[in-house]
Amino acid sequence: MDRDMVNLFAIAAGTLAIPLLLFMASFLLWPSSLIKVYYWYWRRTLGMHVRYADCGGYRFSYSCRGKPGLRPSILMLHDFSAHKDTWLQMVKYLPKHLHLLCVDMPGHEGTTRTDTDDYSIQSQVTRIRQFVEAIRLNRKPFHLVGISMGGTVAGVYAACYPSDLCSMTLICPAGLKNQNKSKFDIQMDDVEQSQYTLNIPLIPSSPEEMEEMLKLCSHVRFRVPEQILQGLVDVRIPHNDFYHELFMEMMGERSKYALHDHIQQITTPLQIIWGKQDQVVDASGAASLKEALPGSRVDLLDNCGHSVVMERPRQTAKLIFDFIISQQGTENASAKKTS
Question: Mind telling me which residue stretches traverse the membrane in this protein (predicted)?
Fold first, then answer.
């Protein structure tokens, strides 16, 4: 083999080796950066674009895809200590023609966080309404989706601003007086008795605690490498003081049962999705909602925990889309009868 050919192979090998070495270095030394790149890649792949909305000195960060069309726009509200990219796995299975918006909840990720802000459920509802009005989303009734804490906010939003919505999906929402205690409720009894000297299970500060949180939130057991666990912790640690403040507010008198306190005011067509093996918010909450709102549709998912969007993204997307279509069909049928 002549020298030119040897040089060519050496250059090719070097070219391939550099990205691999960079990946390995990121994985071993900066796993949190790798996680951020991962979300950036999936947003780009799925056609989601990050945008900002300003109103009165307050900035909302959100990702979106598509434009308003014949189907209702869909606004998604994430869980406690999560972010707008939480929904990406489910977005993958929603039709591309839908207008989708995933907003960072108040104080989370790219949305404004201040020391003077009130993070009670009612105040979060007020902030989300500001976002909706800032981007003029309520020019036409839209479909609202919320999971866990985001589900509480969505339910109270529906009670306060029913004309904004055509329908709503609540995924294992918090804020209810459930019939049965979950594993998390029992853990929190111990934390409260210790006067909060024990760590709160949903606010991990080490890879071991992160692994325990994932086990608590997911019935499906995901094998997560230790370096990725470390990266997930590294991303969260700078925000843990805020998460602790927010969590204490969620457990306080004003917010703990906010959804329960507003149930009777909800008139929006409602879909309830819940993992049967939810260890954070017990699935008996679905029966409580159904009893209070008999016209609701309930979908209980087998072999699924609290992280419904992560564990059953395809099924959840299909259930939501089917519900939206069914509600449009009901509206069209009612319009024909009255005409």
Answer: 6-30
pLDDT digit string (tens) for 202-212? 999 999 999 99
With bands split at pLDDT 50, 70 and 90, how would you rate the model's confidence at 33? confident
Q: Which helix (H) or strand (E) holds 189?
A: helix 183-193
Task: For residue 9, count other CB atoms closer than 10 A to its CB.
Answer: 11
Would you say residue 250 has pLDDT above 90?
yes
In whole angstroms, what is the distance from residue 43 CA to residue 50 CA?
A: 8
Give the separation between CA 89 and CA 105, rounded to whole angstroms.
18
Distance CA 205, CA 189 (A): 20
Q: How many CA atoms lie within 13 A of 242 on its CB side?
A: 20
Mapped onto helix, strand or coil, the DSSP state of residue 237 is helix
Active site (catalytic) residues? 148, 278, 306
Task: List the Cα angle 300/321/65 in 5-degree steps.
Answer: 125
Q: Which pLDDT band, with edges at 50, 70 and 90, does 178 fall under? A: confident
What domains lie within the chain, and their CATH numbers?
A: 47-338 (3.40.50.1820)
CA distances from 87 to 123, 307, 311 (A): 23, 11, 12
Closest CA to 162 of 144, 176, 180, 147: 144
| Amino acid found at 159 | A
Strands in 49-55's sheet, in edge-to-edge order, are 49-55, 58-65, 100-103, 74-77, 142-147, 165-171, 270-275, 297-301
Q: What is the mean pLDDT of residues 232-253?
A: 94
Q: What pLDDT, in 10s, does the model give residues 139-168?
A: 999 999 999 999 999 999 999 999 999 999
